[in-house]
Design a protein that fits this description.
By secondary structure, the chain is an alpha+beta fold. It has one domain. Helix content is about 40%, strand content about 25%.
């Protein structure tokens, strides 16, 4: 039992040390993906040939942070997948995935009764998945030039 704990701790510590760089990588990818119109519109859509529509919904906007939803919406069924929730720290030039579904967004993820190593591993997995998805979106051709503001937020994006 002690051997198992000892082999897991270095991995958790390594993940914890690398999380800030991962958050900076996400911020840089979002900077390439998101338009300047983000500051003026609450909902944007990006359409590229051969890809599902990509929606960006700004949930909160503050001086130093923004919280947004980024999701593919498949036209026939209005299914959202993946459905990423992202907190952007503008002053620190970092961003992180907070959830990939509404259900994850309401889970209790911190507190004195929950182990820190579980939070680190969860954060690492969420953010690695977000980096891969952002790279995929950029490869598909989504970017600042393809986003256009929407007049109102579609009902299916409401939380």
């Amino acid at each position: 039992m002690l051997t198992r704990v000892d082999t897991q701790r270095p991995q958790v510590q390594r993940c914890a040390r690398q999380l800030p760089e991962l958050h900076a990588t996400i911020y840089r990818a979002l900077h390439l993906l998101l338009p300047d119109a983000l500051a003026r519109a609450d909902c944007l859509i990006s359409s590229v040939p051969g890809s599902a529509d990509l929606y960006l919904n700004v949930l909160e906007r503050h001086d130093y942070t923004s919280y947004l939803q980024l999701t593919y919406v498949f036209s026939g069924s209005r299914v959202q997948n993946p459905n990423a929730y992202i907190r952007i720290y503008h002053d620190a030039h970092m961003a992180e995935a907070t959830a990939f579904s509404p259900e994850q967004g309401i889970e209790r993820l911190a507190g004195p009764g929950l182990p820190v190593h579980g939070q680190v591993v969860r954060s690492w997995r969420l953010n690695r998945a977000l980096v891969k998805w952002l790279d995929y979106l950029l490869d598909q051709g989504h970017g600042a030039a393809t986003f256009r503001p929407m007049d109102e937020i579609p009902e299916f994006l409401s939380i």
